[in-house]
## 1
Amino acid sequence: MIIQIKDMERLKGILLVLIITTTSGFAQEGWTLQDCIDYAIENNIQLKRQHLQSEIARNNFNQSRISLLPGLVAFANHDFNSGRALNYETYQWENREFEQGNIGMESRLNLFNGFQNYNNIQQQRFLLLSSLEQFEKAMNDISLNISAAFFQILLDKELVEIAEFQVEVSSLEMESARSNFLVGNISRGRVLEIESQLAADQYQLTLARNNLGSSYLVLMHMMQMDPDHDFRVARPEIVEIDESAILNTVENIYVEAEANLPQVRGAEYFLKSRERELAITRGQLSPSLALRGLFYSRYSELATDPIDGGNYPYATQIKDNQYRQLGISLQIPIFTGWSTRNRISNARVSVLDAQYRLDETRQNLYSEVHQMHNDAKNAYNRYISAEKAVLAAQESFQYAKEQFGLGLINFVDYQYAQSSLYRARSNMAQAKYEYYLRSKILDFYIGQPLALN
């Protein structure tokens, strides 16, 4: 036989380790999925910009509430007159140079304007809530993308291990073949065939390592991390594969997703903001009532003291010339060139568009849930089939290896058995991580955090 007894024991040990890591995984130091998500959320520029938009919406909401307070304006004027000017002390026009001025404060409080201020506050509140939901959705999108890239690395790491196992097997066969060739048990051609197989397995290992490096680069770009950073992901303690995630129906998952995910709530808040905008424009047809208060005083260098006709200081003039006014103003819109009617019509269209946006968001979410559930179910079925295929391929490979060692089958048949085992293990790893990722996303839809066991 080509593979000696001690090599067989070594091969069994390698195979046992591979089976254990393929089915359960092992822990090692490195970045966990939560570490990667936290880093990406902290450093993502697009998310930072979305946060700024939320801050703008918050400022607009605060401003809408402050706008209920009465406005207060202070004013002061000082004029240098030259030529013909009105003397406010005598109310006569004089042709001379003199200085005069006035000071005062004016306040205005809207008592009623068709509830425009109230509706504006509600509109800005709903816009703020919608913006916050959009920010949360952006965080969820980043988390989901990071999770997909993270799982791709786990898959590629496992494919590297499978390829390493294939190289180890071929290396053992190469060592035994050379030993048997030296004692004349096999031909030179048999050694060359095994050497060719070892080179092919080493090539597959190189491809697997390159794919792993590319997957790391993709994840680091998503995290906006320096590619030169020493970065490695940590494997989960246990990768549990069970069908619990797909036992729940699509309808139940959708109901939970609609209640938990921010995109539907954000669209609902946006619709409510458009409804408030319509109420604001309708309020522009209503009469408006405002309370106005005014304090005013004036001074002039031409003024004389009314008692003795002497010098009249500016401070004394301001005290003596005080004027106060309190009034109520009513404005009734009669004709505005149909501009208000046009704004109301546009606001109705905006409400209808926001309703369509909400309906589209719900439809998209249902499609996502349905597609994810179907993909998870297919991946689980593929994993179950692949697991059986691996067991069958292992038995077939062991049998072919023994037959090849005895010279009862040719190298082509032996190579086919080995390649079938490699493909079966690769298919099982791909199905496993595909199902595991989709099952976690389904759990995320029903309110569970994105985390590995």
## 2
Amino acid sequence: MASSLPFWFNKRFSTEDQCRASIRELRWPEGFRCPGCGSERARINARGLFRCQVCQKQTSELSGTALTGVRVPLVTWFSVLWVMSETPSGISASALAKLPDPDDDEQNLVSYKTAWLLLHKIRGVMQQTSLEPSYGRIEVSVETLDVVELGQFGRQGKKAIQVLVVVKERADGTTGWAYLRQVPDRGPETLRRCLMQALGGATGEEIWSNPGSEFEWLGEAGYRHRIATKMGLLSVNRVLEEVRVWQVRTHWGEMSEKHVGAYLDEFAFRFNHQCRGSSSKDIFEDLVDRVITGKPRTLQEVIRGEA
């Protein structure tokens, strides 16, 4: 892995001091400000913490970020972020745990448990955002996706869940944005709430759904509702097929219902970056910004699948 790290990465993230300096620059571009009293007067003490000269509060670069809670070197953190950025389909915890340590080829970068925790913490900051209104064609549908059903003794088999799929097309007919979210039921109030969250509440969009679907209320809500006939919802079908392929190729089908929301967030994050033509560096910078501005989650919160 070390040979694949680009020059700009090594220049900023190859040592612990470089990582800390980069985090400080990103968190406090105009200089450190105490989160307790707002003072700019602070010194770095022997423990490497900012100590406010006014209220004496001690602050770490990592406090209040998604980087907290995993005891691995920052170099490892950023190496994993780069792996997640440069691999188009992402990586499973099993595959990540097999990567060699850049400083010691005889050791692995992280253990399986650490790999699992790091990846889920990263997926936690890939949360999807609503669509900015742009008045174009949107396809919506509720589709079925098979996930792993877990029981008292581990994997118990497959379980079908319902997923709201929202896809935005560009003027040339290509896909420009996708949103996927598990829904507990197909009731009109549930779908209305989830779809409004995806669309950001903007009206005037042209929205297509299948005949006899649960979206007949869209016209009354101010949208231009259209019924898809003949060819059906091509963009929805394409996105759903890519989800199923990604599920098998990257995660070997091992997507549990408890964490399916995080996996759907990761897929949409990657898919939307791909639609924008983002480079690996673009994705990495987005992830770093999200990790630094994201809220911390405890190990138990991650295990329970809490956002």
## 3
Amino acid sequence: MKYDFLINEEYKSTRIDLVLSLQLEEVSRSFIQKLLEKGAVSVNGSVCSSKKYKVSEGDRIEITVPEPEMLNVEAENIPLDIIYEDDDVLVVNKPRGMVVHPAVGNESGTLVNACLYHCKDRLSSINGVIRPGIVHRIDKDTSGLLMIAKNDMAHESLSKQLAEHSITRRYEALVFHNIKEDEGTVDAPIGRDPNNRLRQAVTNQNSKRAVTHWKVLERFGSCTLIEARLETGRTHQIRVHMAYIKHPLVGDFVYGPKKQPFNVEGQLLHAKILGFVHPRTGEYMEFEVPRPAVFEEVLDKLKK
């Protein structure tokens, strides 16, 4: 697949391999470096093979990433933080830094690799060999709750609930600046950024409706802790919507400032509450997990 985008001011003077790894979150930085060596990356129409090249504002970057059909997804004995499990559903607390499913250049160490080991052959097949059991996903650096379908019946039920917007998904996020209002809703369509094909954006071009409800939990002057409730589930939805209203997430190098405080890599976004109707019993179930340590450490610094 080919991607192209323009470098804006916030990324100027940054190494090209870092810029690409921030944009293509599921492709490892080492694999991007290999693509550079193979001539799969061009800058302003000329092949760029140096990972140390520092991009300039206005540079047009093109990168060709191989299609993932031939991935050999292996089961790996990776510890899982299991919150709930039965014969139909697995609910896990995904740590920051873990990719949900394999992609080219990132074939191991993912949640899918871990689930294949834990569940053996008891995962739904609806999403194929690369994403078995995966009903929904969260970004690599987003922590928190995910539901895994252990059979096709469960997968179909949970997918239907997602489509009907009946699943409870509440996140906590730390955003920049003081939000004056106590709560609000962002109802703005999200699609590929017309100026940067590696990002999402609020746009009317080839987009889908996206709705995020938010409320303030605590204010720190320079930052605000919010709860965000998803009505829809678009790629990077909370990150895009909060940046759209001028409150990007702390740690988000893609949609926020390049220079980040607190020495945090990756957005401070946590999927705290997940609720759904059990596919077999019809019982409503809701789960909650605490914020990860790195999130709490930043909040402690702000409180002090």
## 4
Amino acid sequence: MKVRVNEEAVGKRIDNYIAILNNDLSRSQVQRLIKQQQITVNGEAVKESYKTKLNDEIEITIPKAQEVGIVAQDIPVQILYEDNDIIVINKPKGMVVHPANGNLDGTLVNAIMSICKDSLSGIGGEIRPGIVHRLDKNTSGCIIVAKNDKAHIALSNKLKNHEIKKTYIALVRGIIKENEATIKMPIARDKTDRKKMAVDKNGKEAITHFKVLGRFENKYTLLEINIETGRTHQIRVHLSHIGYPIIGDDVYSNGKNRWNIEGQCLHAKALDFTHPITNENLHIEAQLPEYFKQILEELKADNF
């Protein structure tokens, strides 16, 4: 694809210009193509900050997506919603979203590769499910995956613009007196433990809203949580920082609990968003996992 810059387009950053010109490419994709020298100006490589000049000839080459070296595995997962563009899964606790060192298979992506087969996103130059947001290994619940590039880009933009409402349920240690509150504390990588995150005044903005659904035995509080931002471990970090760690969280508390469960009692209950292609309003819910239900039933019985 070749484009010649006219008077109206003079002085624009090339990454912004091409992303607007071609709706099928996100700005990050354009920047990646520029770094790979797949986008040139007058036959020369440029930086993404290059400002367009009159009559510049921009050539855009989009390489064909390659098959990614991730094995499709027939792993049973609950599908909450599926169409030609997206799929929403109820991710079980203990499942990693994406293959990485130490978790090369048995992940959500391995399962989606098997479910979607030939209908997958090619963003990043590799054919794979479009993971636009993630859940920690021990967080269960709703996770949305794009099947194609157009849906992937649209969902990424919705996330960036806070247009996807994510609702969580968490059981924390301690009695929270407020019925509703907002935690607005920036989060960054922990300076002493690089595997953890921490509240840090120099970190990125992080906003967590919660309301109390129940209080038990003067020891525990059940919360419904909505997040405006999606920082790594955001809910876990915020609640632990204000003195109410999530039950079972062995990273941001000692993890010890009377039920001997491993991993945090945190569940992504619902997603509310407009469909990235059809603009249909969607509300998708995932039921609490059985272990979480049993804990709540026990605590409710103890309250009487």
